[in-house]
């Protein structure tokens, strides 16, 4: 039993070390002093986010970038929480800031994609940036994208996302989990094109792409029957069409911060929603990564159960746990340093014990045929 388990653990370790190498290889561009050359349309789809909108809007107003080269498009996805006075007040106080409020009435099973498509049709600028209503954007956000676009000539740019500061085990656990995803994301971009490695994750809370490129890959056509995945399915299509022009901007000036889940139940529902789209990936590398992560965590849980009944050596279980613990920590440490969130590593030991149970539970529940999100029920 030890040898199959050790084999799985070693393959997993190689994968994580591979991502760590990719993380280091990823270039870290700095914001240039060149005059702004790129025009951006910022799209924010939202549904019942009245309590989050003031913070987002204030951060958008603080962006340092020529107002004539940007616009903000807020796309209401059938909200019923009294959001309009908040937006109208913001518009009246920032008359120099181009802001549009439009409304989306979805007819498919993917309301967010429909909202984004409507925003893209409304956009007047050639570059689209998407973020979420529960986010805060940095002041040099557009400057960072502008510099990257001028230097790299991309078609699509993924960029970093992390959580706002918080307290308590729930916050620290999900932050560590999220940092691990960001580390794997950045690592896969750092190694893209080497062998069969390709990017397999990105986050719609900080995503930029050329409007013409979106049209060239026919937008979300082909996955409108899948509720989530506006970011990853688009990444797959962009990479298939423009493999040398899809990149990750590893810039601290471009970090978008978002709110974490406010309860364990909300966290599980969010992660189940994320995991539910994995089976629809066209990226075989991404599926392989997901399968290996699930298999490694499942193996540890099964071996723990066997150890409790004296059917497996506690020493061998401890060895496997230590191997996984250390390789995970290597990538997490790199990611936490980049995001300036090293303090969260104090909670790593406890989180590493809970994480296998959390991961396996999320995957198993994601196999269900339906899930709920923001007051709606979705079928896979």
What is Rg?
21 Å
Intertermini distance: 36 Å
The overall pLDDT, averaged over residues, is: 91
What summary fits the major beta sheet? 7 strands, mixed
Overall strand count: 12
Kindly report the CATH topology of the largest domain: Spore Coat Polysaccharide Biosynthesis Protein SpsA, Chain A
Provide the number of structural domains: 2
Strand order of the largest sheet: 3-2-1-4-8-6-9
CATH superfamily of the largest domain: Spore Coat Polysaccharide Biosynthesis Protein SpsA, Chain A
Architecture per CATH nomenclature, i.e. the level-2 architecture of the largest domain: Alpha-Beta Complex
Give, in order, the helices and strands: HEHEHEHEEHEEHEHHEEHHHHEE
Looking at the structure, what is the overall shape? globular
**Helix share, percent:** 40-55%
Can you walk me through this structure?
With 380 residues, the chain is of the alpha/beta class. It has 2 domains: 102 residues, no CATH class; 237 residues, Spore Coat Polysaccharide Biosynthesis Protein SpsA, Chain A, CATH 3.90.550. It has 12 helices and 12 strands. The strands form 3 sheets. The protein has a 7-stranded mixed beta sheet. A 3-stranded mixed beta sheet has the order 5-10-7. A two-stranded antiparallel ribbon has the order 11-12. α3 links the parallel β2 and β3. The chain is globular and about 70 Å long. 42% of the residues are buried.
């Amino acid at each position: 039993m030890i040898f199959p388990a050790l084999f799985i653990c070693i393959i997993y370790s190689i994968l994580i070390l591979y991502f760590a190498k990719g993380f280091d290889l990823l270039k870290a561009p700095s914001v240039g002093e060149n005059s702004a050359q790129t025009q951006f349309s910022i799209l924010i789809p939202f549904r019942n986010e009245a309590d989050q909108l003031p913070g987002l809007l204030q951060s958008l107003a603080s962006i340092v970038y020529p107002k004539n080269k940007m616009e903000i498009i807020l796309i209401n996805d059938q909200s019923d929480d009294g959001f309009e006075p908040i937006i109208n007040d913001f518009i009246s106080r920032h008359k120099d800031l181009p802001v549009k409020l439009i409304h989306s009435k979805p007819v498919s099973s993917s309301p967010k994609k429909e909202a984004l498509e409507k925003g893209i049709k409304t956009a007047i600028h050639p570059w689209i940036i998407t973020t979420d209503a529960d986010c805060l954007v940095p002041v040099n956000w557009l400057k960072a994208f502008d510099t990257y676009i001028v230097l790299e000539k991309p078609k699509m740019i993924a960029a970093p996302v992390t959580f706002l500061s918080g307290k308590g085990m729930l916050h620290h656990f999900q932050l560590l989990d999220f940092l691990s995803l960001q580390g794997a994301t950045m690592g896969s971009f750092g190694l893209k094109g080497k062998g069969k490695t390709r990017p397999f994750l990105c986050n719609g809370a900080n995503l930029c792409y050329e409007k013409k490129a979106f049209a060239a890959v026919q937008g979300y056509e082909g996955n409108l029957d899948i509720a989530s995945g506006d970011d990853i399915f688009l990444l797959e299509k962009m990479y298939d069409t423009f493999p040398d022009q899809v990149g990750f901007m590893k810039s601290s000036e471009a970090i978008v911060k978002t709110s974490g889940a406010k309860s364990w139940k909300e966290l599980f529902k969010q992660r189940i929603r994320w995991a539910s789209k994995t089976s629809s990936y066209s990226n075989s590398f991404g599926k392989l990564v997901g399968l290996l992560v699930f298999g490694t965590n499942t193996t540890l849980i099964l071996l723990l159960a066997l150890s409790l009944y004296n059917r497996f050596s506690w020493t061998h279980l401890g060895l496997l746990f230590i191997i996984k613990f250390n390789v995970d920590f290597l990538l997490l440490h790199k990611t936490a340093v980049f995001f300036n969130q090293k303090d969260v590593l104090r909670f790593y030991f406890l989180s590493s014990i809970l994480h296998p149970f959390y991961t396996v539970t999320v995957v198993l529940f994601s196999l269900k045929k339906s899930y709920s999100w923001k007051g709606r029920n979705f079928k896979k």
